[in-house]
Hints:
4 helices; extended; about 0% strand; mainly alpha
Amino acid sequence: MSGSDEGKKHDNGKPDLTDIPLEAMWAMGAALTYGQKKYGKSNFRNGMAASRQISAALRHIYQHLSGETFDPESGVRHLGHALASLAMVCYTIENYPEHDDRFEKDLAKFEQEKKA
Length: 116
């Protein structure tokens, strides 16, 4: 098939999702599957304070950094839980901006005030 016979796809500038490591997707998927059993399917889509999701991600990251690979409750990698929590906070901030409860949302404004 020559180049002129190829179909068209307007995907310039769009993210290449094929570069996301499979290991990360599996770890996050395992954490989300565990969450479905514990809280119900897609419970995070009901919205909650973004800071709670960030806090959960940080707890799992700190557990990983302290040398614990797997969460004892779920048996899932702490990093999978952290990835899932970060994915959920991305969803929350995009779909429930009222749940974006960061202390200082405008870092540029904060930096400006520090200089004054």
